[in-house]
Amino acid sequence: MLPGRGSPLPSPCVDGGRLGIQLSTSECSGGVFHLVGVGTLCYFVALPRAKSMAVPEFPFGDRLVLKPEGSLLIGGSAEALEERVQTLLSAGHRHLVIDLENVPHVDSSGIRAIVRGYTTAERDGGSLTLVHVSPHVRHLLHLTRLDTILTLVDSLDIGPPAPGSTR
């Protein structure tokens, strides 16, 4: 919390390739509104309310591939992916691939879903790989230096999973 303000600490965000600070977020029936500071400017960014999504999945060798559709944003889609990844890891799937071919944008909630999935998989001796990452998402991962930690590949031909894999 910011002292005396009762609001959460600002979080980093990216708008048009520029790194900014998300100062606050509020929801209404029409969507999600973010107050964003970039440099000395502050402005509102309105995003349509994300619909909760089912995440299609299919087996690929010893891996399970998840293929989300649409942007991974606060208010539904990012949370749905995070929940599904955690459920699969808890059920014993150790090697997951998230195919981002049809995901043009992510916000901090989408990044959270990916990072949480990665850390859970690694902790449990598994892996989480990102495939078909769009230029926008790749740029965001580069700005946050997550591209140095996460496994990003261009195709599903990513080789065998680690020895001793389950499922």
Topology:
Blueprint: E1 11-15, E2 18-28, E3 31-38, E4 41-48, E5 57-60, E6 63-66, H1 77-90, E7 95-99, H2 108-123, E8 127-131, H3 135-143, E9 151-153
Parallel strand pairs: 6-7, 7-8, 8-9
Antiparallel strand pairs: 1-2, 2-3, 3-4, 5-6
In short:
The protein is α/β, with parallel strands linked by helices. It has helices at residues 77-90, 108-123, 135-143; strands at residues 11-15, 18-28, 31-38, 41-48, 57-60, 63-66, 95-99, 127-131, 151-153.
Task: List the defining traits of the structure above.
3 helices; disordered N terminus; 167 residues; alpha/beta; five-stranded mixed beta sheet; Transcription Regulator spoIIAA
The counted number of beta strands is 9
C-alpha Rg, in Å?
17 Å
The pLDDT mean sits at 76
Q: Would you identify the CATH H-level superfamily of the largest domain?
A: STAS domain
Instruction: Write the element-wise H/E pattern from the N-terminal end onward.
Output: EEEEEEHEHEHE
Shape: globular
CATH level-3 fold name of the largest domain: Transcription Regulator spoIIAA
Low-confidence stretches: 1-23
Q: What portion of residues is helical?
A: 10-25%
Class of secondary structure makeup:
alpha/beta
Percent of sequence in beta strands = 25-35%
CATH architecture grouping of the largest domain: 2-Layer Sandwich
Describe what you observe in this structure.
This protein is of the alpha/beta class. It folds into two domains: 11-48; 57-153, Transcription Regulator spoIIAA, CATH 3.30.750.24. It has three helices and nine strands; from the N terminus they run ββββββαβαβαβ. A five-stranded mixed beta sheet has the order 5-6-7-8-9. Strands 1-2-3-4 form a four-stranded antiparallel beta sheet, with no helix packed on it. Strand 5 and strand 6 (63-66) form a beta hairpin. Helix 1 runs parallel beside helix 2. It is globular. Mean pLDDT is 76; it is low at 1-23.
